[in-house]
Design a protein that fits this description.
This is Sugar phosphate transporter domain-containing protein. About 75% of the residues lie in helices and about 0% in strands. The protein is mostly helical.
Length: about 240
């Protein structure tokens, strides 16, 4: 969040981006989406402590179904076509099949993952709503970062993570530092892309594009870090 604020302000200073300064009114307008965004990030990390990447990726494919429900309830949009509902339902059903025979099943991790799915669908839906109010993508990204940076910092202090970072044995390792910087910048680009896609298209479109990403993530996850048992039911799902 801090890196995003610095980069956005730098781009605005050089004239590459234009967005208003932070005011309390705008921060309050985006407070709810930021809260759901922060909860999604925290719950996802907690879930990944007890879930392998392929199964987490499969679980995330439930987001489009939740987005359809929220678009009708929150955005008051008409129910999507039968083709869209059928495709999304098939994707969700595949997720359930994949999870039925997960040999590393952890109920708590799956609960946290399911909650992160709901939080993601909520913040994407509210971002779409903000886009309908003509807020720029850069402005939304800036508001989200400003709203999130202090709560994240407080949580890091309370959980002792800052102390852990200070004593991390690879903190001064150049390769680790480069990897960290690249991860932060990719996170910035990811958030900008998510918000831009949601504003131009819809929360449902963004989540369905995420399904395509999850397919690749699942395939890579089977081999990247080990500890994953592949079976017929997983692959069928």
């Amino acid at each position: 969040m801090a890196v995003t604020i610095i980069v956005l302000k730098s781009l605005r200073y050089t004239g590459w981006l234009t967005f208003p300064d932070l005011v309390i009114k705008d921060a309050k307008t985006f407070a709810l989406p930021s809260m759901f965004y922060a909860l999604h990030a925290a719950l996802a990390l907690i879930a990944l402590e007890g879930m392998n990447i392929p199964m987490y990726g499969a679980l995330k494919r439930c987001v489009p179904l939740v987005n359809i429900i929220l678009s009708v309830i929150i955005l008051k949009q008409p129910t999507p076509s039968t083709l869209i509902i059928g495709a999304v339902s098939l994707t969700t059903f595949g997720c359930l099949i994949a999870g039925l025979n997960d040999p590393t099943f952890d109920g708590a991790a799956y609960t946290m993952g399911s909650l992160s799915v709901i939080m993601q669908a909520l913040y994407l839906t509210l971002v779409q709503q903000c886009g309908e109010k003509k807020l720029l993508t850069s402005h939304i990204l800036y508001l989200n970062s400003c709203n999130s940076v202090i709560p994240f910092f407080i949580i890091s202090c309370c959980t002792g993570e800052l102390h852990g970072i200070y004593h991390y044995k690879l903190l001064k390792d150049p390769f680790f530092q480069i990897s960290l910087i690249m991860t932060l910048l990719m996170g910035l680009v990811l958030n900008f892309s998510l918000f831009l896609c949601t504003i131009i298209n819809s929360a449902l479109t963004t989540s369905i594009v995420g399904v395509a990403k999850s397919t690749l993530q699942t395939a890579v996850g089977f081999y990247a870090f080990g500890g994953v048992t592949i079976n017929t039911l997983n692959l069928t799902g």
